[in-house]
Write a structure and sequence with these properties.
This protein is α+β, with helices and mostly antiparallel strands. Helices cover 50% and strands 21% of the residues.
Length: 395
């Protein structure tokens, strides 16, 4: 057993040391693996960043009310009477200033994307001071808060990164209405940074919404009070509303880009098939060029296992090197990259690509799979190399 192990290690070392002699074939296999891994990580980082941007906005002790059957805020409507009923619901927190609730509007306006110079939908949220304080980590990073009752708005940091015309003190026209940007806010990198915020009452007036809203948020007395609130809503026929925690709502919204991860894996698998075909050719050529060497080793007593393992390890090493190169390229090109895409309310969501250790492990596994598949059949051929091949080369 010790002899077989020693033979195997000797063949592996010999194959690895001889890689520079096959530099162009080796580089081709490394490049093919690197491209596949980089593309896979780019798609996965996009999906993960989008999901993180939405899920980080939600809270387990804040519930969101929307019209029954509405999948997103844009499709919902809540009357003033329903707002009043929610404010007195059991399980909804109150303080010295009254119920801790926020009735909000959500309208769509146009913005010009910096990357493409094309129009895209942006959410303009009608909100009041209570709604802002209910959200964690909201800070004004430049300028000031809008003055209630005026055509002033504050801009999320993500909007400022991805869209033109929303700089501090700029005048912005939406239809017949002109707004003045008086502040920039940050919310810790979550989805709220993809929004414009203005006074809810002004928005109601300018967009002819009367006294209605689209969504309502309420602070729970405790996370366990959700069922109390839900029972209250279900038992009142006037409240034809869906109730869920903010955390669940945004988690569901974040999964909508899960198709991007599936799409990325599908594209990567298709590309991996091409990479495997190229790698198979590389490894078969490597075995053919070393046929005399392999047969000579067999003739002097080296086992078939050593020839098989030596070729397999060579393929795995080349694929692993490609995986490292692809991971480094993906990290340098995509990690932290800001982008925007269409969200659940048909508006743009600004997010950052996010490469995590788990994604790098997936990339490494994908690269090793390429090496394993592309190395197996050439390794099998090396293991079955007839001893006579050594003499035929000499002849």
């Amino acid at each position: 057993m010790g002899s077989v192990f020693s033979q195997t290690m000797a063949v592996i070392a010999m194959n690895i040391r001889s890689l520079p002699q096959r530099i162009w074939m080796s580089l081709a296999m490394i490049l093919a693996s690197a491209v596949v891994v980089a593309i896979l990580l780019a798609f996965l980082a996009m999906a993960k960043g989008f999901e993180a941007t939405l899920s980080s906005a939600g809270s387990d002790d804040v519930v969101i009310f929307m019209r029954e059957g509405s999948a997103a805020e844009l499709n919902s409507v809540i009357s003033r009477d329903q707002v009043n009923l929610i404010e007195v619901a059991p399980g909804v927190m109150s303080d010295a200033n009254g119920p801790v609730t926020s009735a909000e509007l959500y309208v769509v306006v146009d913005g010009i994307k910096k990357s493409s110079n094309t129009e895209a939908n942006i959410p303009l949220r009608g909100i009041q001071e209570r709604g802002i304080t209910m959200r964690d980590n909201v800070t004004i990073t430049a300028g000031r808060m809008f003055t209630p009752g005026t055509n002033e708005l504050i801009v999320g940091a993500g909007i400022l990164q991805q869209f033109d015309g929303f700089e501090l003190n700029a005048n912005v026209r939406f239809g017949k209405n002109v707004w003045r940007v008086v502040g920039v806010f940050s919310s810790g990198g979550n989805v709220f940074e993809s929004e414009l915020w203005a006074d809810a009452k002004v928005l109601q007036s300018l967009y002819n919404r009367g006294s209605s809203y689209q969504t309502m948020r309420a602070q729970l007395t405790s996370p366990g009070a959700l069922e109390t609130v839900r029972a209250y809503v279900e038992n009142d026929p006037r409240l034809n509303l869906d109730v869920q925690t903010e955390a669940n709502y945004f988690a569901a919204q974040g999964k909508q880009l899960g198709y991007m991860a599936i799409f990325g894996r599908t594209i990567s698998i298709v590309m991996a098939l091409g990479a495997i075909a190229g790698a198979l050719n590389t490894m078969y050529t490597s075995v053919a060029e070393r046929s005399a060497e392999i047969a000579t080793l067999r003739a002097i007593g080296f086992s078939s296992l050593s020839a098989f393992a030596g070729t397999m390890v060579e393929a795995l090493v080349l694929a692993a090197m490609g995986g490292v190169v692809g991971s480094v390229c993906a990290f340098m090109l995509f990690d932290g990259l800001n982008a925007s895409t269409l969200g659940g309310s048909f508006t743009q969501v600004v997010f950052s690509f996010e490469l995590s250790p788990d994604l790098f492990r997936q990339g490494a596994g994908f690269a090793l799979a390429i090496g394993l598949i592309s190395g197996f059949f050439p390794a099998w051929r090396a293991a079955r190399m007839p001893v006579v091949a050594a003499f035929s080369k000499v002849a």
